[in-house]
Input
Amino acid sequence: MAYIGMQFDANQVEPSTSFDVIPAGKYHVQIVNSQMRDTKTGTGRYLWLELSIMDGPHANKRLFERLNLENQNEKAVEIAQRKLGDICRAIGQMSLSDSEQLHNRSLLATVKVRLEGVDNSGVTRPASNEIGGYEPLGGRPAMQAVAPAAVAAQPVSVAAQPPSEAPKASTPPWRRTTAA
Output
């Protein structure tokens, strides 16, 4: 028996939400929380990321990522740096000093399902989700700031096509001309 130091009333606390496994696929996500944490052994540190699914039937469900940025295992560090690089490229944040710079920026996460079973340590684990990769939302890297000189050097033609010519499917909408 242990005295908990207070009178606890479960009626005053919202119930926990379950961490149900979601189907494999690509999901629009945003990083909503992050922390640098010590590894279990205390010999390294990892960047812990909490991601929120932004839309669809699994909106507001949470996914979690651990990136071993400081670890004795060089392969673990290399994998973590690649994933962090993928996240940075997907949101157009090429330089980073604080993980908060990743927050609330949209990207796609490829979610996989890890089936229930025994892990490498011999521990039986329930089924779970893991993130297999990241890419820009919409398939294109997020816009980055362009130096003014680079913009001035690129000529822009408002009338790229004669009005009699139908716009080609590959012509961006802002460059298409409309027939009067």
In short: Residues 144-169 have pLDDT under 50 and may be disordered. Residues 68 and 74 are 10 Å apart (CA to CA).
